[in-house]
Amino acid sequence: MRLVDRDHPEKIRRPLGPDETAAVRRFCGAGQEVRPGDVELVAAVLDEMHDGRRVRLWLECDCWQDAKSQPRLTARVRDEGPRHFMRMHRYGEHRCALASFRQDPEPEDDEPDDDTAPPGQHNPLRPVGDTLDYLDDLHEGVARPGGSGGSTGGRGDEGRRLPRLGRILHTLLDDAGFATAHVDELKERSRSWDRLEAYAANEAMSPELTLAQVLYFKPWTSLNEKMAAIDALPWPDKKARSALLLFVADEIRDGAAVKKTSMGECRVRPAKGIRAGGRDQGLTQPPYWVLAVIDRDREGYARFREAFAQHAYSFARPAPLNSRYERRTLEQLFGVMEWVKKRGVDVTLAKPLFEREVRQLDGPSLWCRPDFELTFRTVEAAGIAPRLHRVVIETMGADEPEYLERKSRTHEIMKRRGILIEHRVSDDDGQAERDDAFLRRVGAKILHLAGVQRAGTHRKIPGV
Q: Are residues 186 and 296 part of one domain?
């Protein structure tokens, strides 16, 4: 194996040593036993490949003897997650242990969750590691019923397991940048599908197939035309032919996701229904992100097979959310971000769609998924290096004892990630006052941590 320059692949940076090569194959090969020291060797290689902002080097394998081209791996960093390898399908399949690929030596995702696990030590919800796994596996010529061509991953909201299609949707939105927002982006009005099209065009599913050829964003596209285009594509072995439709729906009614256009309503009505993510199981608080699977039924007719819907903040800014309660919280947070920006503090907001790791010095890592996280740095001062700060935000949408007790367990873990601030949201006359108190508290905490001196202890935040 050897590291090659990403921008000039013909330029070899260095070959991997025998120990590094063996460690990579054990670390990423399913069924391989990871040995002590492998993780450190692999982490060092990944750090060399990715500088935290962009990929600098690719890792070229050596399993095709005497071949002019070899399979390659790239490095990826997902929102505060560790660096990990990604296969680059356009460069061919591996003939070594990497042919059966995994990202890390953790237990496989299809292992069942342990309901008796201590708080934070459950099987964490993770992104789908490979875009090729967005496609169903073939089983005797028929796609898996219900589109379960892969593992379900960890637990979803309210203790339920997130369906595979929901996990794919979360991965798409996370990778395309919809789960984060910097304060400078709040006034932008870029179209969602422009960002998605640019993202999909750069994701390879096989040597000949990109995600952009499978994923589309216009629900008025004819199903027959789309499946005819899919049928004409070179297709990966052992995968069923299908397409994915991703869009923001105006509403969901009578089992259909509805997109309103100047030509009337487009309706996406899956044969196997629409499942919902988060607490909004009634699907009565639009808009919604909708991801639908298009394939052919047993008679060969094109159809919408199934779909998954996730609450969105708005059409202009479709950040994925779990409920209308979170929408209220997010509205306040956007206001805080714009206000502290005027005081010189740039805040980035994240809506965690997957588990966040909390490392312990004297025990295994813990896992949690806050509702929101705000990150920012200390305002620069002479001789002082800017320090990164994190504020964790939790929306409290109920007051039942069981709900509060469950939240208290996870909040203890979240407090190890950053300053925890709760926002209580309820359908009563006191909500405006609670919003005002929450907004002031978050704004004051950010200014304090950032080292900004406030002009007055009771200065009013504009718009409140």
A: yes
